[in-house]
Amino acid sequence: MQIYSVSTSSIKAATSRSVQIDLPTDGGTRVYVFVHAGRASSTDTSFVLLSATLGGQAMSLVTSLTQTSSNRLYREYLYEVIDPVDGGGNPTTQTLTVLFNRSVNLIGLTTIIVTGVVERGAAVSDSADNNNSIDVDVTTTLFPGIILAGGHIRRRLDSGNYDSLAATDDAVQLVKYSTGTADFVDLNIFAGSAVADAAATYTMGWEWADNDLTALIAVPLYGAVEVAEAELSAIDPEVVIGTATLDGLLAEAEFSGVDPEVILGSIPPVQVSGDGRLYLSTSAQNITVLLLATAGELWTIADAADAVEQLGLTVTRRKGYLTPL
Amino acid sequence: MSYSVLELVGKNLTINLLDGVNYALVQWAPSVSARDRSLLGNYSPYLNVSEVLTVNVFGESVTEALQALDDINIVLEQAEAWSLGDAVEPVLMRVQMLGSSLDEPLEAVVLGRPGDESPMMLQPSFNQDLLIYEISNVEIRLVRRGLWLGEEVERSLSSALTNPAVMTVNMGERVNRLSPTTLRVTGFGPGTPMIGGGFLLVSGTPAASSQGRNIGIYGAASMSSSEFDVEDDSANNAHFDDILQIDAAAHATGTILIPGIYAEVSRISIFAAVRNNSTTTTWRVRAKSTGYVTAVGGWRTIDALSQDPRIIYVGTPANQSGAHINVALEFVASANSGTLDVNYVVVLGHDPSTRHVTIRAGDYSAESFPRALVVADRATTHRTPLIYIETVTE
């Protein structure tokens, strides 16, 4: 599992924002979009996000939070798309669009694409009206994992908060950007991640110089396919070792020491994999498989309670042809 | 022969040789592969083959025609790079006959150019009359995998079986060619401390054979011996509960006989689950097949490095009669002390589609995901198959 890309986009005084993102075809690809928006008005600050789509399909809302502050309204959303390329059925470049019901002062999009994800945990969020730091604790239940976090602080004029904004605790900052410097309503937006290589509690934190309004959303991701370190060797060579028989007379050889490797010429040729490059080939209607393995002091594979394991089997075969049909 | 699909699919370019815009197929007679007679395996049981395709390359301008020509070379170079081990994706040659009943085109991995030949042969003429820019009779020369690959079939056991069970999956039909197959053994729960090392055996009855299922697993009740005694070791999950045990103090040599296996094949491989209880005495073991003819394997050593159960490969007796009736395992101790246990013996009859795959030991007891053991053919994606442990979700 790894972060494939991080991208940002922002716009002032708009109803919607669209960006194009490049998507990998790797298994377990997921797109996470932190959407930040704010509106200032002395009469009506209300606004809502009408739709968030990727490639024309609605993204799934993971969580959201809302903050108000003296004629200002801020919202942050976290959206998710699982397997956006859909096994190759969808394009690898797609348009991400968020649409609000009315014009807002700012829109900020932080898009993080992660590959190799098997599962997502519950999102955690927090907000504060007047702080110089924010953090959330994310407890992971599986591993390996990656924790993503995205948040914002209001950008007060003449503040040094943008320069001082930095990740703390377990968080590693991936990106920070600002929607602008002119308006009191502007936001400093940030995102980060943490590697969660054990089931534990991780603190995703940020800090800055002066107290201000802030919000943060974090989510743990788990997975994915893992190649065990010891399993990369090869398919065992099939070498005929033994005794040649000729005209019914037993010509038995006693091999001492290292076994010689003898291919008996009288036996139909067999495929021998000298370097492990030979894949499994079958043609039968019924495929028979037997896994022989032990587990420590036990004769058979056992579960965590030392009971004999129940195993299933799935066989996948691509039909081969020698001439086009 | 007429085709509805004929294309070379690269990472960023797909050369549609039938598009009528930039390419027009002049002629192509598909090469037909055959079984590889080499004793050394080379990825597939079928030989790679060379193809020569003659095409006319067009464009609405000189530049477009030349670019279309170069596109072919770009794709062929990607294929060559993949074969050389570069971190690029493979190039697939896809073909479908006009009127084919298949839902999807067949595909084969392109490996690059034949030998040291040029991948393309150009002609001296360049036609630019009538505002049609044509490079005629361009020869595309390539090597591809011998097998065309079509539809994928996936089948699973209807329910999990207690390890070590012989698991048989009905694929719904047999196929006429040895076809790339991926196995996924599932059901390893979170915290399963698998695996102490062993083998994954694969077998099947080929289309042109009448022999039956050819993996047999034999426990203490199916084996006889004058030197080994039957002991209960169900506390250690012994298969069939019992084991056979020999004490070197009483018997420095011993034989286990498994009568009547009736494997109608020339070669059988024999595996055994054994436990050397001594830290000093080593044992030698060999396999013997008797019946029509006698075939004896070489000696293998059971060392004293571990006192845990382990799976060993005993040998591959072979004879020209094409059948084995009785199997015996002969043991010799290195000293007059220590005991050796045998839980079960497995006989694998070999046919063209049988294999045994070594599974290396791995400790997953501290990990929290359910797992699957996968032997993947990766026939259209990678240069080699792969054996790996995969994290899965339930």
> What's the number of helices of chain A?
1
Helix/strand-derived category of chain B reads mainly beta
Q: Give the strand tally of chain A.
A: 19
Shape of chain A: elongated
Would you write up a description of this structure?
The complex is a heterodimer of chains A (325) and B (394). Chain A is mainly β. Chain A contains 1 helix and 19 strands. Chain A has one helix spanning 161-164; strands at residues 2-22, 30-40, 49-54, 57-58, 60-68, 72-82, 93-115, 117-120, 124-139, 145-154, 166-169, 172-178, 187-196, 201-223, 244-246, 249-251, 281-282, 286-293, 310-321. In chain A, strands 1, 2, 3, 4, 5, 6 and 7 form a 7-stranded antiparallel sheet that branches. In chain A, strands 8, 9, 10, 11, 12, 13 and 14 form a 7-stranded antiparallel sheet that branches. Chain A starts with a strand and ends with a strand. Among the domains of chain B are: 3-144; 217-346, Jelly Rolls. Helix content of chain B is 6%, strand content 43%. Chain B contains 1 helix and 27 strands. In chain B, the strands form 5 sheets. In chain B, strands 1, 2, 3, 4, 5, 6, 7 and 8 form an 8-stranded antiparallel sheet that branches. In chain B, strands 14, 15, 16, 18, 22 and 24 form a 6-stranded antiparallel sheet that branches. In chain B, a hairpin with a 4-residue loop joins strand 19 and strand 20. The mean pLDDT of chain B is 87. Strand 19 (310-321) of chain A pairs antiparallel with strand 9 (148-156) of chain B.
Descriptive keywords:
heterodimer, A: mainly beta, seven-stranded antiparallel beta sheet, B: 394 residues, mainly beta, Jelly Rolls, eight-stranded antiparallel beta sheet, six-stranded antiparallel beta sheet, 27 strands, 6% helix
